[in-house]
Amino acid sequence: MPRRRIPPWIGWPLLALWTYFVLSFFANAMIFHPSPYPEGAWDLQHAFDAEDVWLEAADGAKVHGWFVPAAAEGRFVTLYLHGNAGNITDRRGHIEAIRNTGAPLLIIDYRGFGKTPGKPSEQSVYLDADAAYEYLLGRGYAPGQIILHGESLGTGVAVDLASRRPCAGVILEAPFPSVGAVAHRVIPFVGPFIVSGFETGQKIASINAPLLVIHGDQDETIAFDLGREVFELAREPKSFWRVPGAHHNDIILTAGMTVYEARLREFQQSLP
Predict the structure, then answer these.
(1) Do the domain assignments include residue 94?
(2) Known active-site residue 248
(3) Residue 6 phi/psi, 5° resolution?
(4) Residue range(s) defining the domain that contains residue 136
(5) 165 and 155 in contact (C-beta within 8 Å)?
(6) 49-63 per-position pLDDT tens digit
(7) Is residue 247 among the annotated active site residues?
(8) Which has the least CB within 10 A, 16, 163, 174, 179?
């Protein structure tokens, strides 16, 4: 019996479609790279006298985080939204710096990260951030006391939240206009067709709060000019801190803890 061959006009489109779906699957899987419990330095909780908090998102999902008291009394509280990898225990430098400015902070793990069960997605991390914001309101903080501080992927979460909810100010550390824009740098032209989402560039102008953008000029993960693009799209008042020599994960180390804390204090003092 003769073998039936697929005509080229059918075979090539099928191969292209299959390749697209395979690449898209792996690209989207790489957006989130969580470290679930017990991975991580969980003894850090005691070092900062952090309080375990469990939040409930609008869809009923449970979200774990730490509420960390400040080292001194201040006017603001920070909601810290971390990047796409690890968990809250990997943010020791940021926790230390923020609490030293006099701002207590709530830091959460998205679904699938740390002790938070579930699987992360773009929409689920937005819901997780909403739950954290509501928790701070329930704890007695006014919107005008809440600083949203996003790191890497967390900048997209922070911008989405700030575009919908009032806050005192927004700090974006290594932001990007969209996942597609980052993908374009990896696979020119094709990348944005494979992976998309976190459209910060479309939302940033909706923020009605003072903005501080921080970016290392040697960032190999999210190019420096992408952070600059986000800054240019934002409304005033805004400021940009270029950290010379800093890569994606060593901004505090490169700038120095003292300088980093001073920048955060300067931003806080500029807020009404």
Answers:
(1) yes
(2) yes
(3) -80, 125
(4) 8-270
(5) no
(6) 999 999 999 999 999
(7) no
(8) 16
